[in-house]
Task: inverse folding
């Protein structure tokens, strides 16, 4: 199989990405998640003394009983959409089978979301991982935050740690987020024990799960019996790549994994999106913001 590929710097492409992200920024405000963007609801901010004329339904009876005089709850309208990106850089994301790797595709998509968020004045945060978590930051506003995230997307670990801690990354994201956010996950989901953390994250946030795919997910080139090493687990197997029975089973196994992932997402109000290495990330992301919202 092909080795790990180099990737063009996202920081150097920032000016170009900023131009193409304009339509995506508009889609954020007017498309699928527009209800989250401005005036998405009200948030409890504290209590104050009761004033004659206040609605008695707003009285906080627990505080009133404790303090011995009436207090009312105070709410503030939430005025901004908060974005969070989770990006998988594990070794299976870095194998080059097309003109670019899964990670190249994921990082460009994540960069577009980050830049579009900045254009809209949305705080954006991130967590990046492979077999360990290498970077995380809480959502913040501004170009400095954007450039920090782009720089870290460019900066793959010099020695990738085998495995994938997707579950830990999702748990960590949930701990960083103090208010309801729109979370984008970019991963091939080739790991274990991520289901419960994903469901937990989706209970308090709106989640878009973007599954990275390439041609090897569906079929392997016919080269006879060839030894393959799993870069995530170091497991070595000899696979009969020219066998029609093997080809069919390989395809069916992939179809089953994708179908089960889609069904889990649909059941828990998560938007599942397939992103192939041959796709243009901008087009796929634009469709995310324009398609009908399935969040229950």
Result:
């Amino acid at each position: 199989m092909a080795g790990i590929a180099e990737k063009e710097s996202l920081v150097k492409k920032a000016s170009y990405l900023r131009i193409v992200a304009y339509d995506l920024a508009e889609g954020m405000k007017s498309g699928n998640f527009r209800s989250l963007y401005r005036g998405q609801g009200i948030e409890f901010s504290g209590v104050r003394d009761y004033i004659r004329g206040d609605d008695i339904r707003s009285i906080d009876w627990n505080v009133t009983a404790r303090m011995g005089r009436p207090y009312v709850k105070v709410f503030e309208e939430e005025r901004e959409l908060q974005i969070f990106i989770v990006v998988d850089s594990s070794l299976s994301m870095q194998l080059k089978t097309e003109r670019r790797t899964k990670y190249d595709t994921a990082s460009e998509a994540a960069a577009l979301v980050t830049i579009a968020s900045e254009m809209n004045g949305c705080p954006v945060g991130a967590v990046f991982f492979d077999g360990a978590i290498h970077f995380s930051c809480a959502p913040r506003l501004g170009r400095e935050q954007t450039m920090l995230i782009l720089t870290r997307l460019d900066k793959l670990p010099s020695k990738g740690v085998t495995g994938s801690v997707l579950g830990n990354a999702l748990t960590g994201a949930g701990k960083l987020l103090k208010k309801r956010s729109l979370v984008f996950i970019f991963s091939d989901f080739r790991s274990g024990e991520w289901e419960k953390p994903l469901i937990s994250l989706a209970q308090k946030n709106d989640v878009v799960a973007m599954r990275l795919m390439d041609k090897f997910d569906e079929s392997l080139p016919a080269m006879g019996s060839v030894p393959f090493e799993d870069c995530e687990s170091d497991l070595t197997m000899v696979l009969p790549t020219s066998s029609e029975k093997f080809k069919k089973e390989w395809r069916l196994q992939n179809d089953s994994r994708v179908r089960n992932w889609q069904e889990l997402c649909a059941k828990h109000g998560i938007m599942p999106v397939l992103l192939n290495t041959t796709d243009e990330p901008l087009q796929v992301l634009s469709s995310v913001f324009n398609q009908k919202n399935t969040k229950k």
Notes: The two ends are 42 Å apart (CA to CA).
